[in-house]
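Section 5: illustrative case.
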């Protein structure tokens, strides 16, 4: 019997032909990393391989690691496997990893979204025989509005708060979501202040040449009165804390795909919820899977059992794979870049 291209182990997704792991959650000798979020790029690996664009954030988070980089589409021969990285559209530098052994192609998607956010490298479908997909938002209820529409909602909310002399505090993950918001909103409305974890990531991405508007890091010395009508980009964990209370009678919002569910906004104690996710919605998942041409689909994190049954009803050979990936969390910062 021919050995499968990829196997699923208690350390991560393993390629026997190359003797490498993809996004492992336990220490291994060689790790191929789809992107820099903490549930996919973990400390303790002997060697790392990631895209050129993911490397700066990984070094920021993980320190002096042994990291080899690769350009999108560049093909590497490792052992008896051909391996390449392709845009996932999730956050800047994120990738799907294509593995070919003996003419059979498997693709590990990591996390992905199909809408071009204008900042991340746009998602590019990769033809394959087997596709390993997330399904963080794998229910029909999750259908995203266009980013331009959500940005307009945020601008209107911010503008109204500024007119009333209130600060606007918006919770967003430090890597990806915060920068996506910065690039989409109307920065002329007022000053933009940032939590330290957000600003640290901003600095890394600006150094890569990503265009972001000017922002001001919030420090213990920051006087909110010096920035009337400001938008404050905060990590989710900072909402409702003394860090946020320094801005007085502010209006608080949260940007997440989970805002599509009733009750989640109340759980976050937010005045406004904006449905914006760096993961594919129901339509995006189904479109991405169809475009791969794959007949075998493995669901790794999210609504896995429900999504598997749906895929089977559509004629796919589908299975669920247990992993340590988290997708988009409601309760933490989801980035692993917090200081």
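Designed sequence:
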């Amino acid at each position: 019997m021919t050995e499968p291209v990829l196997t699923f182990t208690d350390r991560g997704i393993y390629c026997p032909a190359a003797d490498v792991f993809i996004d492992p959650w336990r220490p291994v000798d060689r790790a191929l990393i789809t992107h820099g979020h903490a549930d996919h790029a973990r400390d303790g690996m002997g060697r790392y391989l990631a895209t050129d664009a993911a490397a700066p954030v990984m070094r920021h988070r993980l320190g002096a690691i042994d990291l080899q980089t690769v350009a999108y589409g560049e093909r590497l021969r490792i052992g008896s496997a051909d391996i390449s990285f392709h845009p996932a559209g999730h956050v800047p530098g994120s990738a799907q990893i294509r593995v070919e052994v003996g003419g059979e192609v498997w693709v590990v998607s990591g996390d992905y979204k199909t809408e071009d956010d204008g900042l991340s490298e746009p998602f590019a479908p990769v033809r394959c025989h087997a596709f390993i997909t997330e399904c963080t938002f794998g229910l029909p209820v999750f259908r995203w509005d266009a980013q331009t529409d959500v940005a307009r909602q945020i601008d209107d909310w911010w503008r109204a708060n500024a007119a009333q002399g209130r600060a606007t505090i918006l919770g967003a993950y430090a890597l990806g979501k915060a920068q996506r918001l910065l690039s989409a909103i109307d920065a002329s409305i007022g000053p933009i202040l940032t939590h330290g974890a957000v600003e640290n990531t901003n600095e890394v991405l600006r150094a890569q040449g990503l265009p972001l508007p000017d922002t001001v890091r919030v420090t213990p010395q920051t006087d909110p009165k010096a920035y009337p009508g400001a938008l404050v980009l905060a990590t989710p964990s900072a909402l409702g804390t003394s860090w946020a209370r320094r801005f007085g009678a502010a209006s608080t919002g949260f940007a997440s795909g989970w805002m599509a569910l009733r009750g989640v906004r109340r759980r976050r104690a937010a005045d406004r919820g904006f449905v914006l996710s760096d993961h594919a919605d129901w339509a995006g998942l189904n479109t991405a899977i169809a475009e791969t041409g794959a007949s075998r689909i493995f669901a790794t994190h999210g609504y896995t059992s429900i999504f598997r049954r749906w895929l089977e009803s559509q004629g796919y050979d589908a299975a669920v794979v247990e992993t340590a990936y988290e997708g988009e969390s409601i309760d933490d910062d989801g980035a692993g870049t917090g200081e």
